[in-house]
Amino acid sequence: PAQEPKVLGYQVVRSYPHDVTSYTQGLEFHDGIFYESDGEYGGSSLRKVEPATGKVLQKVDIGRDIFAEGLTIIDNKLIQLTWENKFGIVWDKTSFKQLSQFPYQSSSLGWGLAFDGKRIYKSDGSNSIYFLNKDNYSEEGFIEVYNNAGPVDQLNELEFIDGKIYANIYQSDVIVIIDPQTGAVTGKI
Fold it and tell me: Does the pTM of the predicted model rise above 0.90?
């Protein structure tokens, strides 16, 4: 059985202005810029945002029948998920030109993404985190996330920090810290 996760605190060190009409699903901070996946049927977009002012520097609207979700960066590419459309989109990070799409496999929904420099981690709202190949985005396995009480689901946006996966639990104020080798929740914020 898993050990009870260590409870960690937090401190807000800075806040930034943000477009309150943007339903942020995926967020990356890269070279001093926010890259944001804004999800909503009929209003999804991909955005490049200046953190200090909240000004949208670049934006591309996505089809009315697409709900944009998680986002990560690999080299000069932005990898973006769709929620129920069963495919991801690959964009050129500089031009925001769509380069390709890729199908989902065992995971039918798209929620969150993170990249550790070698592989991509993808959530789908369940207690599974899927491993995607960084070159062709095919699924190459998964882990099931659990704590001492059992499976932990509603795993949403993901970040990879110091060898661990951080996932917010949708519709809660909790972030869990996950061991990417075992799926065990080792801490929560």
Answer: yes
